[in-house]
Design a protein that fits this description.
Layout (H helix, E strand, L loop, with lengths): L1 E5 L5 E6 L2 H4 L5 H15 L58 H17 L3 E4 L9 H11 L4 E4 L6 H6 L6 E4 L6 H6 L2 E5 H10 L2
Parallel strand pairs: 1-3, 3-6, 4-5, 4-6
Antiparallel strand pairs: 1-2
Length: about 210
Amino acid sequence: MDIAVKTFEGKDAGKVTLSDSIFALEVRQDILARVVRWQLAKRRAGTHKTKGRSEIDRTKSKMYKQKGTGRARHHAASAPQFRGGGRVFGPVVRSHAHDLPKKVRALGLKHALSAKAKEGGLIIVDTVALKDAKTKAFRAQLKKLGFASTLIVDGAEVEKNLGLAVRNVPHVDVLPVQGINVYDILRHDTLVLSKAAVDALEERFK
């Protein structure tokens, strides 16, 4: 598929031919959902924790005698039904990560790129370099281009001035091509790829 190339100032800079096997697939929502779930699960810290009855620092002696009180039979005050007692089946420290085959991860990235291209949210620019690391000028440029929620993907390294200018801009993220991922692509309205990023992606999926 052919797509127009723009400069970062919004001018025409020719065309580029994108690989149909990466940018023109029939989007499968089930694969995207699997990859996003895998990504978000890996991000979870899993440090949630509550104390069970064996971990509560209260006396373990019997609260009162077994018979003759007319009350229910109880033992330790650390039982869950008492105030200050342990919690039944509470969360414990664990990893939420689960395995996902490499081929499914790679396919998920292709489908995410295809989804952006299909809905018209894919923009190719010749380069994303900035003359000055000025956030105000960068925000004005984004407004001029009509970009709001945007993910910018550069080549092997993010251009220094761009990395500095984008830090205080809400809803705009910049990644090197190695960091491109399904979740960030889908949660932004616009995906901006430099020509270096396109070349790297096509080389990666050869």
